[in-house]
Design a protein that fits this description.
The chain is α/β, with parallel strands linked by helices and about 200 residues long. The chain has one domain: Rossmann fold, CATH 3.40.50. Strands 2-5-1-6-7 form a five-stranded parallel sheet, with helices on both faces. Strands 3-4 form a two-stranded antiparallel ribbon. Helix 2 crosses helix 5 and helix 4 crosses helix 5.
C-alpha cells in the first residue's frame, strides 16, 4: 500500500514546484484543482447543483464560467464552503480510486490548496505544507494572473485557511521562499516518509 502525501499551502506558496519535483522523482501526483475542473465539467449532478445555486449562466456553451464561479467563491468564505460541499465529495471519491489504482507505487501524492478545508486530511498519511512569505505569494500571483487586481488576489488568499493554522496541522513543512533550497527539503521529506 502506497504512502499518501497530502501537499497543501496557500495560493502562490509554490505547491506546483514541489509537485513537479515529486513527479520528476517518479511519484504520481494527483492535482486536485485540475481534477476538480474535469469533474465539475463532466459530472451531471455537480452541474445541476451549480446551476441551481448560480443560474444557467454558470455554464456557457457547456463550459464552466470560471470567472463567475471565482467571483462567487471569493466574495464570501461561506460561498466557498457551499461550492466545496458540492464539488469536493466527488473529487475525494475520484482521488480514492486514483490512489487505489496507483497503490503499487511506494509513495503517491495529492496537491490541494484546500486539502484540509475539503476534508482530505483523512485520506492521506502525511500532510505537507508548502510555505512562502505573503509578499512573495502576492508577487507570484500578480505574475501568474495579471487580470486580477491586488485586492482580488488578497481576497483569494483570505478565503483560504490561515497558514499558521495549516502549519499546526502539518506533519512536515517545506519553505519555498526562493532563498531556502527546496530539493534538500524534499529529500528530507522522503526520509521522513520512510521512518
Amino acid at each position: 500500500m502506497a504512502i499518501k502525501i497530502g501537499l497543501t499551502g496557500g495560493i502562490g506558496s509554490g505547491k506546483s514546484v514541489v509537485s513537479h519535483l515529486l513527479a520528476t522523482m517518479g511519484i504520481p501526483v494527483y492535482i486536485a484543482d485540475d481534477e476538480a475542473k474535469r469533474i465539475t465539467s463532466s459530472d451531471i449532478t455537480i452541474r445541476q447543483q451549480l446551476v441551481h445555486l448560480l443560474g444557467e449562466e454558470i455554464f456557457s456553451n457547456g463550459e464552466l464560467n470560471k470567472k463567475m464561479l471565482a467571483a462567487y467563491l471569493f466574495s464570501d468564505p461561506e460561498n466557498a464552503k457551499i461550492v466545496n460541499a458540492i464539488i469536493h465529495p466527488r473529487v475525494k471519491e475520484d482521488f480514492v480510486k486514483w490512489a487505489s489504482l496507483n497503490s503499487h507505487h511506494p509513495i503517491v501524492a495529492i496537491e490541494s490548496a484546500i486539502l484540509i478545508e475539503a476534508g482530505f486530511e483523512d485520506e492521506v498519511d502525511i500532510i505537507v505544507m508548502v510555505s512562502a512569505p505573503l509578499d512573495l505569494r502576492l508577487k507570484r500571483l500578480a505574475l501568474r494572473d495579471s487580470s486580477s487586481s491586488n485586492e482580488q488576489i488578497k481576497k483569494r488568499i483570505q478565503s483560504q485557511m490561515d497558514d499558521e493554522e495549516k502549519k499546526a496541522m502539518a506533519n512536515f513543512v517545506i519553505v519555498n521562499d526562493e532563498e531556502t533550497p527546496v530539493i534538500p527539503q524534499i529529500i528530507e521529506l522522503m526520509n521522513f516518509t520512510t521512518l
